[in-house]
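PROTEIN DATA CARD
Card holder: Luciferase-like monooxygenase
Chain length: 345
Origin: Serratia odorifera DSM 4582
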Amino acid sequence: MKLSLFVHMERTLPEESQQKLYEEMLQLCEIADRGGMHAIWTGEHHGMNFTIAPNPFINLVDIAHRTSRVRLGTGTIIAPFNHPIRLAGEAAMTDIITDGRLELGIARGAYSYEYERLMPGLTAWDAGQRMRELIPAVKQLWQGDYAHQGEYWSFPSTTSSPLPKQQPHPPIWVAARDPNSHEFAVKNGCNVQVTPLHQGEEEIVRLVTCFKETCQRIKPEQPLKIMLLQHGYVAEDEADAQQAAVEFNRFYNYFGAWFKNERPVSQGMLQPLSDEEIAANSYYSPQAMRQNLAIGTANEVIARLKKYQDLGYEEFALWIDSGMSFERKKASLERFINGVMPEFH
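Structure generated from the sequence above:
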């Protein structure tokens, strides 16, 4: 199983310098590259200081110049916010600049907060349908001289300019949860990204089972991969692991508040959650984080990841966004590289 890093600029306090956050993100990426991690993934978000990521291609090009071998992935491009011609060209240019290291992850998007601002009236269903139209169109544009008449986009004969370095194109990944998304991905020759968020082993098993059953039924022309994206923290000891569980619990309370899109937002920041509100939210808890996420000493994390490997996951992406300090993220990542990764080489 290949081991990767999933990272954004993450802002939990308005006092935190965005320039400093970017430099810290780059430091984590450089550590991942030097440590031999397989890939670095970063996503697309708009108007939210929770995850600052307006254009992952910009970040990946910069990261490419500061790294030597690590693969560089979009985790993920939000399909409805991208025109097929523009996405095909921008992804291809990124593939050229990064010397053929691009992995193109695409999703329908998750936050109604973003939908309201970029495409008012957009629903999750409509966003999913746009993704299903976008990906085949992008693949055709990379072949060239392609005219499109669809429900959401129409254009005369066009060729992506430029064409990607990787041929026939960079690997494409689809963020999938329900069986229909898995079916779309497999039918279109796309790898699958899944995240159980804060949920436990039952969801992790369900997601990989859905992928395997879909591949058995459809029988894709080329072998496809499934990647598990999950929060994790490699701790020094149990007290350190418990602290991480508390920090991840706070992160998921903010994640849930952004997802519900009911709380006031000012300057891209949610109205702060009080300790009392976090404690009262029974949907999340530090105990559940400790049990369900890849938190623990190096040996504990190795044992958990071995289970994921045995289930059939071919890549694990350590989601490092957490609300904890840069120093704690860095220490965990270094322990992951030095204490966990050797078991998977």
